[in-house]
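task queued by scheduler; priority normal; single chain, no ligands, no partner chains; default sampling; output format set to C-alpha cells
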Amino acid sequence: MAPHTSDVPAAQVADLAPPTGVRLGYVGSPDAAQRVVAAARAAGHSGPVEESECLITEPYGRLRRGEIDVLVTRFEISEPDLHTGPPLYTEERVVAVGARHPLASRSSVTTDDLADHALFQPPGAFPEEVYDQLVPRRARGGRPLRRTCPAGSMADMFAAIADGRAVHPTIASMRARTGHPDVRYLPLTDLSPAPVCLVRPGGEAPPSVSAFCAAAHAGFARRDPAASAGTGDADAGARTA
C-alpha cells in the first residue's frame, strides 16, 4: 500500500521520486498551489507538476473525474470518497469589499460588521458544510448573515464586489488572484485562519501522488519543524490549524 502522506520521514522523500508527473488542482487563488509545489521542491521532489484551476461551482468535480490527481484546498472537508491530509499551513481571513463601499475605509472588520450587507450564496455544487466555514451563516454576535447574492463564477463575484452589490469573506491570497483596482481587502478579525490541505481520491494513492504529498509535508516541516507537530508557524506569516 502507498504510504500515508504524513507517514513518510523527510529523509526518505528523495527515495520516493515519482516516475510520472502530478496534476495539481486549486480553487480560487493559485498561491496555495505554488507554495505547495515550492515546499515539495525544497524537500527534494523533482518530478513534473502541472497546476490547473478547478471551478468554484464544483470544486471536487475534476478530482472525482480523474482529471487531476491532488487538490490543494482549504477548510475541513467531509467527503467520504476523498482523503484529506493534515494541514500544511493556514491563511489569514480577509473580506473583499468595493473601493467605494461603506466598509472600505475601515482598517479591519468583524463578522458583525458584515451583517448589514449582502454576501454570496454558495456557488453551484460548492459543499455547504465547507462554505459555512468560508462564509458563516451567522455573525459572531448571533445576527444572520445575508447570503443572498448569486455567484456563478469568480469573475461574477468580483464584479459584484467591485460595484458594491456584495462583500465576501475570503482568504488573504485572493489579493494576488484578482488585483482588481476597485476591490479592497480588509482583515477579518473574528474568523480563524483557514487551514490549507491536500485532498486526493480515497483508497490507495499512486506512488507519484504519495511522493508529492510526502514531499510537500516534509518541505513545510523543514521550514518550521514545530509545524509538523501542530504548533508554531508552518510558513512565513502562517499558523497551523
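post-processing summary
- The radius of gyration is 18 Å.
- Residues 207-223 form the longest helix (17 residues).
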